[in-house]
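Researcher: Structure for this, please.
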Amino acid sequence: MSRCHIVAAVLLVAGSAAVYALHHQRITAEITPRPLLYLVADTERELERIPLELTRVSDEEEMRVGEELARRFGYATGRSTDAESQRIEQYLGEVGARVAVHVNRKAIRYDFHYVPTNSFINATALPGGQIVFGRGLLRLLESEDELGAILGHEIAHVDQRHAIGRLQYEVKSRKLGLEGLYRISSLGVALFQAGYTKEQELEADRIGLALSVAAGYSPGGAVDAMQRLAKLREVSTHKPGSPIEEMADVPVQALQEYFRSHPPVAERIAAFEAEIAAHRWNANQAQRPLAVRAIFLAESAAELDRRGEFDKAIARYNEAIAADEKYLPARHGLARAIWRSGEAAAAATAAAEALSRDTDALPVWELLAKALAASDRTGAAARFQQILKKTPPASESVRDHLEAESLGLRVYSGERADQALTAYGKIIEKEPDRRVGAYLRCRMGWWLYRVGNLKKAAEELEAARQAYPQDWPTRLALAWVLTDLGRQADAQEQLRGTDSSSFTMESQALAGVIYWRSDRRDQAKAAIARAAAKDEVWLEPHWAANNYSPAAAVVLGELRTAEIAHRKEEELRAQRAGQTPAASRSPR
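Model: Predicted structure, token format:
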């Protein structure tokens, strides 16, 4: 009998056995078409195994294949230059190496790649120990033990030859030979992200759990991760309302890719619990915090802040700080969220705390100055100097900027304002860098605007604009001054000639002010609606008073009232029509 006939006979027997076994498996999933799909897929893929045993590649060849695939897929083209991504990738490597210690195939070297995309809610095992982990999945986890369990699952796919087996079959079925993998690399991503057979996935769960427990992680981490994913699946089709839903905030389609490539979550949880009971592992063992969780909490807080849910944003930033008190972006974000909520004194306190840990954060210094000015106008300059003396910046350039900022605060506070302007003039004369000089003029122009010295403010801002014409913030500041001066056409001209990426929410709000003052009320209302749709801060009553001139704040208040009334009308109209209106947050 020829070798081909032998292989065919073996395949027939193996296939029949596979069909029989799969038909008699106990399926604990819900009654849906999914078990039938798994049955078909398992039956087909069981047929892959016999010829692969006859053509098994070496560990060295598998690693070469995996490295080439990782390179072609873009996972091994060099580490990210982004500091946060570098930190996360290093952390993945540390946890993964800890879990991989107990594998059977000791010759395999494991590399862990991080994909910094929220829509990638999955992890993937390529042949030869190339493990890929998406930001979308990582940001849902709450402990290192959960991460250890998921990495254990992916490592098990490699250790049990699931990954190389999948590729071998694809290459063999196309009669390409192993070198032919280079001609199907475009298929590779879909091939591995599609997942494995149900049996292989459950086997990876079982072995991966054992690997993570051997590494010292709590077996409860695997159960917790699956329960969170189960909860996420339940709520993925309706409006977010719980912290996990808000934290997820990912495209439903991307989320469903994870569920399509793995067995039903309920079945996996039951299998984990059975395995834990069989080995008498302690599922209540204390779990380690996820060392990078503060990054994702702060990201979630920033989105809540943008949506105008300031109380939630502040709480989420505090969670991030509790998770990692050294994570400076969370402290910066907390001060910014409090400021945007309208609590100027509290914002000043938060900014001062952030600066005690990051003295060179110039944007936070400027936020501190604004918050002090809004909470205590007469004492703002003195208080700013006290904080500056207590936590002086290390950078000479930041110190130079803050010297001019202090003078601007003195002008606003009325503390020897003439002397402050004279000292500021000397700083400008000595400044050799045209761009820096323009920036300092813009800052002083803004303080003059805030104090009501519009003529002098316009002079400084025009000088800044001429020194550095392409600076959009300077033109925006000048437009605010010009509209207060009654020069609406000139103010509107400053908003023209910029690319769309620079046309910010603030410029939309400013356009609303200009239109309102020009008796173009419908255009004004449309402009403030666009601004508020992108950033709800424009509907916060304290925002205008804390940031703009009293005259501009009055107009912004009228626009705010008009937009709130419009939203209420839309809600009533939708209710009368029996429709569900688009969700909108009620301003405070």
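Researcher: Any notable elements?
Model: The longest strand covers residues 111-115. DSSP finds 30 helices and three strands in the chain.
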